[in-house]
Amino acid sequence: MPRTSSKASADRAHSSKPTPESRDIPRRDFLRLAGLAALAVTGGVEHVYHGPVGRNHLRPPGAVRERDFLATCIRCGRCAEVCPYRSIRILGPGKGLHVGTPLIDAEKIPCYLCMKCVEVCPSGALKPVPAEEAGMGLAHIIEDTCWAYNGTALCRACYDICPLKDRAIKLERLKPIIVEEACVGCGACVKACPVTPERAIYVDPPKP
Q1: SS3 per residue for 158-185
Q2: In whole angstroms, what is the distance from residue 35 CA to residue 135 CA?
Q3: Does the pLDDT value for residue 67 go beyond 70?
Q4: Burial (CB count within 10 angstroms: exposed 0-12, middle 13-18, buried 19+), residue 35
């Protein structure tokens, strides 16, 4: 049986040793996991999931919780295609985990609760719920700057535009009142508010 040279044996032994690059792989994984753990401790994971979703920047009606939404949405864009008001835009590059997902900017074009998007969603990211259960967020009035509250004018713009008038927004002594149990956060009131440069009403989305 032929004998191998000591040099060849040494070469094979050397080649079987882990290279610096192969040692770096588990180290990189460890650092990644450590970073995620640090985010979790500091509350950063919530920020990662929330991403571009925030005040007046909302998911379409019927959206599941944000943590589940990112895993459930297949980025097909059908909700944006079917929206007759062009309220839904698809997030482009640079949005990390959120790229390709739908978002509504209530200050530009709010949701008018036609509910066509929930009918075409194939993945369940948007649940087929009625308008009264859209669950996009909750409106809040800034009383210091609201004309109806500070006496600037007898304004009722938010009340007049609300698709759930007298349920989500009511008038009491000519002042608009948000009914938390009925408001679905569509943002129509935000767009209608005449106060500038910052509107006197805003919508916060649900917690992720």
Answers
A1: HHHHCCCECCCEEEECCEEEECCCCCCC
A2: 32
A3: yes
A4: exposed
